[in-house]
Design a protein that fits this description.
By secondary structure, this protein is mainly α. It is built from nine helices and two strands, in the order H-H-H-H-H-H-H-E-H-H-E. It starts with 15 loop residues before the first helix and ends in a 9-residue tail after the last strand.
């Protein structure tokens, strides 16, 4: 019996970690606040780096950032920042670490104001995923008007390391947009 060949977006290549992420997470609508915070934090650390670098360090990030518990992250002080800067399992960038703490505090304010971060963040796509019809990787933009608006709005609230490219990557990762290519089995 022949094994079925699965068509995937070419960006994930054949790296098992990337393939699993592509197949099980990327582009699937996510509405869990803690997981949304995880992606927000990871995407901000990814700025200027490849996503596979972040994926390979994801478990270390989970341990270092208290399983992405925003209440705990928001309380980090200088001592914790210094410990994180010594942790080779994560991206040791002071500005990004301080931004994560800052962003956790604002995230909690948004949760309180809107009842959930999910309710707030999904408003940028009218609370339903945008289903794109991309045929080639070159058809996928780095930013969109929705991502630009999200970035401006989050920055106005005080978020850091949250430009339009980071916002669009976040939107793709959390299924706010479906950018699987049309010939991908996960489209």
């Amino acid at each position: 019996m022949k094994e079925k060949i699965i068509a995937r977006c070419p960006w994930c290549g054949d790296d098992p970690l990337y393939v699993e992420y592509h197949d099980k997470e990327w582009g699937k609508p996510l509405h869990n606040d803690q997981r949304l915070f995880e992606f927000l934090l990871l995407e901000s650390f990814q700025a200027g780096l490849s996503w596979i670098t972040i994926l390979r360090k994801r478990e270390n990030f989970r341990k270092a950032f208290d399983n992405f518990d925003a209440r705990k992250v928001a309380k980090y002080g200088d001592e914790k920042i210094e410990r994180l800067l010594l942790d080779s399992g994560i991206i040791r960038n002071r500005a990004k670490i301080e931004a994560a703490i800052n962003n956790a505090r604002i995230y909690l304010e948004i949760q309180k104001e809107f009842g959930s971060f999910d309710k707030y963040i999904w408003q940028f796509v009218d609370h339903k995923p945008i289903l794109n019809q991309r045929k080639e990787l070159t058809d996928i933009p780095a930013i969109t008007p929705e991502a630009t608006q999200m970035s401006k709005t989050l920055k106005k609230r005080g978020f850091k390391f949250i430009g339009p490219t980071t916002c669009y990557a976040f939107m793709q990762a959390t299924g706010m947009v479906n950018d699987h290519l049309v010939d991908c089995d996960f489209y």
